[in-house]
Write a structure and sequence with these properties.
Structural class: mainly beta
Shape: globular
CATH topology: Jelly Rolls
CATH superfamily: Jelly Rolls
CATH class: Mainly Beta
Strand content: over 45%
Oligomer: single chain
Order of helices and strands: HEEEEEEEE
Number of strands: 8
Radius of gyration: 13 Å
CATH architecture: Sandwich
Largest sheet: 8 strands, mixed
Number of domains: 1
C-alpha cells in the first residue's frame, strides 16, 4: 500500500497525449495524462466505459451530436460504444479510470495509440 500524490506524478509528465499508469485496482488502470489541442481523433471503445476526471484546466468532450465541457474538479463517464474525442484549448491535466486492456485510441489506430503493453508507469 502506497499513497500517490497526483500533482507530483503529473509533474513528472512533460509531454501531451501520452497517458501514464499510476495505479491498478480491480482490473482497472488509473492513468494520468496532459492534453492540449484537438489532434486526437473521434473514436469509440466497444467493450469498456472511460472516466475522465479533470485535475487542472478544462476539456471539451466532443461527441457525434454534441459537446460537453468538463471543468477542473469535474468528471464524466463515456459509455462504451459512444464516439468521442477530448479537446483542450489550453493544457489540461486528466486522471482516467479505464480497464487494464483499454487502448487509448479505441477503434482508431494512429501515432497516439498505446495499449497496456506500451504504456509507461510512473
Amino acid at each position: 500500500m502506497n499513497k500517490v500524490n497526483i500533482l507530483e506524478k503529473l509533474g513528472q509528465i512533460s509531454d501531451h497525449w501520452n497517458p501514464r499508469i499510476v495505479a491498478e485496482l480491480n482490473g482497472q488502470h488509473i492513468r494520468l495524462v496532459k492534453i492540449i489541442g484537438d489532434t486526437f481523433e473521434l473514436h469509440k471503445h466497444d467493450n469498456e466505459d472511460e472516466m475522465f476526471l479533470v485535475i487542472k484546466g478544462s476539456i471539451i468532450l466532443e461527441f457525434k451530436d454534441k459537446e460537453i465541457e468538463v471543468n477542473e474538479g469535474e468528471f464524466i463517464i463515456v459509455p462504451r460504444g459512444v464516439w468521442h474525442r477530448p479537446i483542450a484549448k489550453q493544457e489540461a491535466h486528466l486522471m482516467m479510470f479505464v480497464t487494464a486492456g483499454n487502448i487509448n485510441t479505441g477503434n482508431v489506430k494512429n501515432k497516439f495509440t498505446l495499449d497496456s503493453q506500451t504504456l509507461s508507469r510512473i
